[in-house]
Write a structure and sequence with these properties.
Layout (H helix, E strand, L loop, with lengths): L1 H25 L44 E9 L3 E6 L5 E7 L3 E7 L6 E6 L7 E7 L5 E5 L5 E5 L5
Antiparallel strand pairs: 1-4, 1-6, 2-3, 2-5, 5-8, 6-7
Length: 161
């Protein structure tokens, strides 16, 4: 009787080992399979990646825009020139212009009367003084001035109260 039990146990073990080997050849175990052998998708090529390209540096605007604004704005810079100008245009963009001859004046319209600014800096070959002025929609005029030793003036809008 012991011999029959031993034969049955050995037969069961043989079936178990042989069956698992046979099943492994037919359907491989997905847990032990190398996931990188199959590619990204079965039908599609693997995607390629490249690092993002940096944006080119933005250049300042060089021309003013005349916005459809409700408020009239006047910028003025007088004195001896040239000067390097910076100001907000009617659309709210910051404009830069180099070596502008004086006197200089610009009239425009804006919807944001608190975003009004003109700044003039001494250019390399300017040895005299200069001044700026802004007028916004009937508000009191804002002025700034420098003599031959100064290098920059800045005029803005007075806020609405």
């Amino acid at each position: 009787m012991i011999a029959v039990v031993v034969v049955l146990v050995l037969g069961f073990c043989a079936c178990l080992c042989g069956g698992s080997t046979l099943l492994g050849d037919i359907a491989p175990d997905s847990a032990t399979e190398d996931p990188y052998d199959r590619g990204y998708y079965d039908d599609d090529p693997e995607p390629s990646w490249s690092p993002p390209q940096p944006f080119p540096p933005s250049a300042p605007a060089t021309r003013p825009a005349d916005g459809p604004g409700r408020y009239a704005v006047t910028y003025e810079v007088t004195g001896t020139g040239p000067v390097d100008l910076q100001f907000y245009d009617g659309d709210g963009y910051f404009i830069q212009q180099e070596k502008v001859r004086l006197p200089w004046r610009m009239e425009l319209r804006t919807d944001d009367p608190d975003r009004v600014l003109v700044s003039a800096a001494r250019a390399d070959d300017n040895e005299g003084g200069f001044r700026c002025a802004t007028t916004v929609a009937g508000r009191p005029r804002v002025t700034d001035a420098v003599g031959p030793d100064g290098w920059r003036v800045q005029c803005h809008a007075r806020p609405i109260r």
